[in-house]
Amino acid sequence: MTDLTIPNSLKESGLKYFRDGMYPEALKAFAEARLAYAEMGDQLEAAEMTNNMGVVHRVERRKDEALAAFNQARATFDELGDRSRVAQVLGNMGSLYAAERDREQAILHYRQAIDIFGELGEDDHRGDTLLALSGIYLKMGRWGQALATYHQGLSAFQRPSIMQRFLRWLFGIPLRMMNR
Fold first, then answer.
1. Measured between alpha carbons, how far is residue 53 from residues 34, 47, 84 in Å?
2. Do residues 117 and 87 make contact, with C-beta atoms less than 8 angstroms apart?
3. Number of H helices, E strands in the chain
4. What's the pLDDT score for residue 155?
5. How far is CA 63 from CA 48, 102, 119, 122, 136, in A?
6. 120-146, pLDDT tens digit by residue?
7. Is the pLDDT of residue 1 over 50?
8. Which of 9, 79, 111, 124 is surrounded by the fewest CB atoms within 10 Å?
9. For 35-48, what is each residue's pLDDT tens digit?
10. What are phi and psi of 47, to 5 degrees?
11. Is residue 94 within 8 Å of residue 132, measured between CB atoms?
12. How would residue 50 be classed by pLDDT, with cut points 50, 70 and 90?
């Protein structure tokens, strides 16, 4: 049995660095964790580290590096049959395209992620992605679609917070009025 302490420790360090805004350090930790997981034969965790590296690249606005990492992670997740992680990568790609103001690509990737999360019954992930999609529609001036998508996202959460329940009720008012 191989010791997971080293790659797991590197992964946790990467996550901490990322939360603290220390992106070069996060990238280095994720790259080292990816290598350690790959050497152990854990393709799933290695691909997860590649996805994390893509997120760091996205935050640092390095589109090409982010896309390369996301596509590599997605291919591995596809190959391993992990549809949930495929959807997560698609959501990350949607976020990248949204940041790059490529709204059509953002919508395409968010919609693909939403569909997969829906098929898998991952309602909270689906809700988060619907909320992100709503933001794209809002920026495009598609107010009705933004409102409906936001309401749909809030409705997806299994255990909505008090604020989410209030917003769902509040945003439901104009939707109910439009349906009369």
1. 9, 10, 18
2. yes
3. 9, 0
4. 84
5. 18, 12, 29, 28, 18
6. 999 999 999 999 999 999 999 998 898
7. no
8. 79
9. 999 999 999 999 99
10. -65, -35
11. yes
12. very high
Please check whether residue 83 is in contact with residue 120, taking contact to mean a CB–CB distance below 8 angstroms.
Answer: yes
In this structure, the number of other CB atoms found within 10 A of the CB of residue 114 comes to 26
Backbone angles phi, psi at 61, to 5 degrees: 60, 40
Question: For residues 97 and 110, what is the distance between their CA atoms, to the nearest angstrom?
Answer: 10
> Which of 119, 118, 65 has the alpha carbon at shortest distance from 92?
65
Q: How many CA atoms lie within 13 A of 61 on its CB side?
A: 3
CB within 8 Å of 53: residues ≥ 6 apart: 27, 30, 31, 34, 69
What's the rounded Cα separation, in Å, for the pair 94 and 110? 5
Q: Which residue has the tokens 């990467």?
A: 14
